[in-house]
């Protein structure tokens, strides 16, 4: 496991534990519902060669946790199981979130959109959340999506990820959560 990936996992684990420890127990004892998002883009002739995009959200934590009361944060893991590099572009790629009311832009480059906040983060955190340049074959990278505003009251329906190097259009990372049994 690379140092950056290990650091990312440690950072996310610490933030999650901090948030969970600070939450009061739900009065009705209900379980938190996790929303799983996924998309697959084939990269070769074999079915196991693909770029896999995954995100897991807990809607309650998404509503409660913010980055300095300005942004909601979502991590999308990109796994490259193919033999072709996925080239990313900080300036040309973009992300939109699909909500019940329509599409809303999200931020991939926090340093350009909010330089004061970016500069206030410790250097190691900036390194961990910086947008990657590529995802090499056999590698996994994280893309951190900053959703501006704090009025988000429900988990997104999907993420529309436009990657400039992909000519096929946006990758739509959809809610793949199995329907709940009643």
Structure, explained:
With 182 residues, this protein is of the alpha+beta class. The protein has a single domain, classed as Immunoglobulin-like, CATH 2.60.40. Helices cover 24% and strands 33% of the residues. It is built from five helices and ten strands; from the N terminus they run αββαββββαααββββ. The strands form two sheets. An eight-stranded antiparallel beta sheet has the order 6-5-9-10-1-2-3-8. A two-stranded antiparallel ribbon has the order 4-7. A hairpin with an 8-residue loop joins strand 9 (158-162) and strand 10 (171-175). Helix 1 crosses helix 5 (123-129). The protein is globular, with a radius of gyration of 17 Å. The protein starts with a helix and ends in a 7-residue tail after the last strand. Mean pLDDT is 83; it is low at 9-30.
């Amino acid at each position: 496991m690379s140092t950056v990936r290990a650091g990312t996992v440690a950072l996310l684990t610490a933030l999650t534990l901090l948030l969970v420890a600070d939450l009061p127990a739900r009065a009705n004892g209900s379980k938190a519902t996790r929303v799983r998002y996924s998309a697959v883009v084939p990269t070769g002739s074999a079915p196991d060669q693909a770029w896999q995009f995954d995100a897991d959200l807990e809607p309650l934590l998404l509503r409660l946790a913010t980055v300095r009361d300005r942004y909601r944060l979502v991590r999308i893991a990109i796994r490259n199981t193919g033999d072709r590099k996925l080239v990313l572009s900080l300036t040309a790629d973009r992300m939109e979130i699909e909500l019940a009311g329509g599409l809303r832009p999200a931020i991939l480059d926090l340093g350009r959109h909010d330089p004061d906040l970016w500069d206030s983060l410790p250097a190691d955190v900036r390194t961990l959340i910086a947008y990657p340049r590529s995802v090499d074959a056999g590698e996994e990278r994280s893309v951190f999506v900053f959703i501006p505003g704090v009025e988000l009251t429900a988990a997104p329906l999907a993420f529309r990820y436009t990657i400039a190097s992909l000519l096929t259009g946006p990758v739509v990372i959809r809610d793949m959560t199995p329907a709940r049994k009643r």
